[in-house]
TrEMBL record:
EC number: 3.5.4.28, 3.5.4.31
Binding site for substrate: E94, H183, E213, D298
Superkingdom in the source lineage: Bacteria
Domain Amidohydrolase-related stretches: 56-402
Name of the featured protein: 5-methylthioadenosine/S-adenosylhomocysteine deaminase
Record's keyword terms, sorted: Hydrolase, Metal-binding, Zinc
Gene: mtaD
Residues the record lists as binding Zn(2+): H65, H67, H210, D298
Family matches, as Pfam families: Amidohydro_1
Broadest EC class assigned to this enzyme: hydrolase
Catalytic activity: S-adenosyl-L-homocysteine + H2O + H(+) = S-inosyl-L-homocysteine + NH4(+); S-methyl-5'-thioadenosine + H2O + H(+) = S-methyl-5'-thioinosine + NH4(+)
Its biological purpose: Catalyzes the deamination of 5-methylthioadenosine and S-adenosyl-L-homocysteine into 5-methylthioinosine and S-inosyl-L-homocysteine, respectively. Is also able to deaminate adenosine.
């Protein structure tokens, strides 16, 4: 399948300056050629033509930390601190969820991701085989991991998670990759974490974990072990693997050096950290120290959506506030954090740049339809600081169009809305 995208107003990719008036040729899963419209006559052979007049093209956004099925809990538990939110609301709800519920809750989240220009995500949840079915069907790219909480999951859960990680890696034409995911150092003991670490090393799998999210978590570790969660994990070499660490909000002296030394991949979730009042992560310091930072939305229940544009604007403005420095996170940095840094975080090669030889995961954004794109001084600024995700018009993943002119090509919206609504409300009724 060859797709030709012509008349592109501008292409933004973090490896180069903005390119104007271009075409892109996609062949099968790969970006084959990018050139100026003056040379379009050279391209005679293609199956599908997209006219990108008045549109800009960017790599798809990569959401590096989420629990997609938690979309079912949108608006179910608000305005609470992390420990109470988990223990009083979220975990009781999750104890009633079956794998069909996860399927439909995830489907609801996938619609939102596609419609807001996300082409890849990293999910930590349960019933991952069902999530994988949806990744396959939707056409999205995902890094999937069964989340493990030791008291609930134990050895059996570990075996299942490892089995999943080994069996599903590279499925769906390579769109699915896998990791192991101990939930957090406060929900998994040292022996359990060591077992997971050794399995990850043996099978060359990355490890996805929540880390130093709340002040309480850090204080509990300081009281119990006289060291921070970061130091605690480092002391038994937990960080030897590729580590995707969500949050990293609260650091003790010496922690940043540990993150840097171990090449920890920080997934920053500013809206979740705001909603649960966990604080503002020291992202500027991470960036200055060349620690790779990407962005996650976390689950909808702590957000309450999956919109990466909103997340990025919040990330940037919070850093400006925290450091009283308007340059703390500029538009170029936002572009990197939303795209190429996400690919690095998920250990995926040849992804997230608009460049020949790279996977064709990209989005077309209309810059003439909505008032917030006017005037056109700087479209990247307009996109990150002014626009809404409804300007995302067409989404391509792995060379396949999954949304065109805002029409979803792979998912049945009506059916998904119906099932997700029915199941979510039925579960909340069981709890009351
Ligand atoms: N197998 C586990 C599920 C782990 S999935 C990942 C878990 O992370 C939880 N979670 C979601 N957001 C956050 C957060 O911000 N901090 C900590 N945990 C979270 C989520 O509710 C889910 O229970 C079990 O049987 O409970
Ligand atoms: Zn999370």
């Amino acid at each position: 399948m060859k797709i030709l995208i012509k008349n592109i107003a501008e292409i933004y990719s973090s490896d180069s300056k903005v390119k104007k008036n271009q075409f892109i040729l996609i062949e099968d899963q790969i970006i084959k050629k990018i050139d100026s419209m003056a040379k379009i006559d050279q391209i005679k052979d293609y199956d599908h033509l997209i006219d990108a007049q008045d549109k800009i093209v960017l790599p798809g956004f990569i959401n590096t930390h989420t629990h997609v099925a938690m979309t079912m809990m949108r608006g179910y538990a608000d305005d609470m601190p992390l420990d109470r939110w988990l223990q009083d609301k979220i975990w009781p709800f999750e104890s009633k969820i079956n794998s069909d519920d996860i399927y439909w809750g995830t489907a609801l989240g996938l619609i939102e991701m596609i419609e807001s220009g996300t082409t890849a995500f990293s999910d930590m949840y349960f019933s991952m085989d069902r999530v994988a079915d949806l990744v396959e069907k939707s056409g999205l790219r995902a890094c999937l991991a069964e989340g493990l909480i030791e008291v609930n999951d134990g050895q059996k859960g570990f075996d299942k998670a490892l089995d999943f990680a080994l069996n599903y890696n590279q499925r769906a034409e390579g769109r699915i990759s896998t990791m192991l995911a101990p939930h957090a150092p406060y929900t998994c003991g040292k022996d359990y974490l060591q077992k997971i670490k050794r399995a990850a090393q043996e099978h060359d799998l990355g490890v996805h974990i929540h880390l130093s999210e709340s002040k309480k978590e850090v204080n509990d570790f300081l009281n119990k072990y006289q060291k921070s969660p970061v130091k605690y994990l480092d002391d038994f070499n937990f960080f030897d693997n590729h580590i995707l660490a969500a949050h990293c909000v609260h650091l003790e002296p010496g922690d940043l050096e540990i993150l840097k030394k171990n090449n920890i991949q920080v997934a920053h979730n500013p809206i979740s950290n705001g909603k649960l009042a966990n604080g503002i992560a020291p992202i500027s310091d991470y960036l200055k120290n060349n620690i790779n930072v990407s962005i996650g939305t976390d689950g909808v229940s702590s957000n309450n959506n999956l919109d990466m544009l909103e997340e990025a604007k919040m990330a940037s403005y919070l850093q400006k506030i925290k450091y009283e420095d308007p340059t703390a996170m500029d538009t170029q940095t936002i572009l990197e954090i939303l795209t190429i840094n996400g690919a690095t975080a998920l250990n995926l090669d040849n992804l997230a740049l608009i460049k020949p030889g790279y996977k064709a995961d990209l989005q077309l954004i209309d810059i003439k339809k909505d008032s917030f794109f006017y005037p056109h001084h700087n479209n990247l600024s307009n996109l990150f600081y002014a626009a809404k995700a409804s300007s995302v018009e067409t989404v391509i993943v792995n060379g396949k169009i999954i949304m065109e002119d805002r029409e979803l090509k792979t998912l049945d919206k009506e059916k998904i809305y119906y099932e997700a609504e029915k199941r979510s409300l039925a579960i909340s009724k069981q709890i009351k």
